[in-house]
Amino acid sequence: MVVAILLAYLSHPINRLLQRSISSATLRAGLLTFAAIVIFVLPLLLVLQQVTRELGSSFQPERARQLLEKARVWLVGHDAAVVADSMFEMIEQGRDYLATSLPSLFGSVFQISLGIFVCVFVFYYFTKEGAVIWDAFVGSLPLPGKLKLEMSREVAEIVRAIFFGQMLTSLAQGLLGGLGLIIFQVPKPALLTILMTLMAFFPFVGTPLVWGPAALLKLMAGETWQGIGLLIYGAVVVMNVDNVVKPRLIAMHSQVHPVVILIGIIGGTQIFGFIGFLVGPLIFAIFLQLLRFFGEYRPLETPRPPEPTA
Description:
This protein has helices at residues 2-10, 12-18, 25-57, 61-76, 80-139, 145-183, 189-199, 208-220, 224-252, 258-272, 276-296. It is mainly α. Helix 6 packs antiparallel against helix 9 and helix 6 (145-183) packs antiparallel against helix 11 (276-296).
């Protein structure tokens, strides 16, 4: 939901541009919502198509025939009744597993579907009414008009800096990770680079889900030095982009110190989970800005009445 609100805010300039030719706020919000769905769903569909194609090309009929031949030889050397009992036992175990797993699976699918629906609805609503909501929030602050405008401008600057800083960081992690895949001769580096760039939006755990299994496959294949090298490269080079480059990128486009960004990222991910990499720095930076504004704003104190003289 927070991501939907941030995306709605970032789409506000496009909304204002559309306002010149489309007067209906409902129609503008609907068009932007449809465009956002296409922008986010289309790349995922392309990646899934590429994964399916790669899996199909990696299928080796000769290898499959060898496995079937080994299975036939194994069956010939065993009692048919024993094999049948084992197969029935495996079928029963599979049935029991499905009986216990399907409810949780359907529950997870329902939660994901509900989350997507809520995000789409929130994006549409905030695209349509976000300016009114923000003006009401800023107007409720006990600050003079000049400081309200300054705070609104700096918050907008922080939001843009965090979002685009994360995009550049994900791109950098994906490219560096792809370079490591090429150096250590991992198959299908282009596809894995795309996946790593997408997974980099989940800090700390995103990219290891790509280069980690690739390194383990190298180790299992007997390519020990390449596997160890990829593990070290991923942990030292790719992972540190999140800790070093991202705070500096965000600080370059805002007036927030890199240490504040780093503390916000770490604290945000611990409190809010994955979404904390956006929410944490934003909340921490806004909190510090509010402290500064309230520190600068000193309302006139009511003069104390003079003490009575004897």
